[in-house]
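Consider the following assembly input.
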Amino acid sequence: MYATAEMLVMTPEAHAAEQPQEEAVETVLVKAVLSGDREGFARLYDLYAPLVHGILLSRVPRAEVDDLVQDIFLHAFKKLHTLRDSAAFGPWIAMIARNRAVDFHRRSRETVEINDDLRGSESHESRANEILELIRSLPEAYRETLVLRLVEGMTGPEIAARTGLTAASVRVNLHRGMKQLREKLGFMEGL
Amino acid sequence: MKDDYLWDKSGQPDPEIQKLEEILGTLRYQPKPLELPEDLPVSRRRNYFPLLAIAASLLLALVAAGIWLRVRNQSAPQPDQAKVSTPSPVEKKPPERISPTPVAPKDVIAVNNKHRHKPVAPALSKREREEALAAKEQLMIALRLTTEKLSLIHRKTQNTTPANQIKNQHRVG
């Protein structure tokens, strides 16, 4: 059993929900990469790309997300030796993603995102983009948690474990964020 | 519990959340291979111990050198400051005849005089002074002769051929 940073900040309830094997895997993978194993990083990418994708999706235009995911993992590969705690890879790369999103808005000029409506794609996807815009209009603490839960399909304990947030914070963010989203969507009248 | 479904997808499913999941699921991450440049070196943890060891050794050597210099300076005699007094501007006495007895000068440029204090020469008698002057004359003559001889040898060596130079090396030396 590996003791990681995530486990220290998580509640016993979240501990029980979390799979210890996976935590061990990421710790082992980081150590493997640091000792020269490139394949280990590909595995880390598979594990954490959805998290980074979700964080970016809640902050930057959708068209930019895929390129930024690649950039962030490339940066992480170069700077992995600066990660002190191998078990804290998730919180570390989440922080890189958030910083990169801030950086993106600082550097990029005002752009108009072309919705799928204009591209004439399916209505399901255009509705998704509309809801995503509503989520992006929520307070920052709620939008990331909601995107990870509703878009990436992660559970609350998974979000807590991957981002390094406490389970209690994630739970509060999910419920308050969901409440505000319902109000914006007008769920009372039906979706 | 609907709250449980939002939290960990357990319990009774919330139809509204399920609908949102269905719609927003279209934006979900689509797995793509990571494109890492082949020539990009693997990030490795740097071992700073050798650098730290070298830096510590240098620092230690510097400190030791500093202490040694300080101790050395403290044990060495401190030179006294030169004391220069300007002569009084007006007093212009007629040239005096050299008195037979040495008179200690009033204003002296003394450097490091703590250790150079020499006892003042005792007053010599007239005979002793004459003898000393005669000895000095002889010494001066001897020095002049030596100088002349050295000049002569120098001139000779300048005029000789390289073969002679080698031959006469022992004389010059």
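Chain A has eleven helices and no strands. Ask yourself how this observation constrains the way the partners meet.
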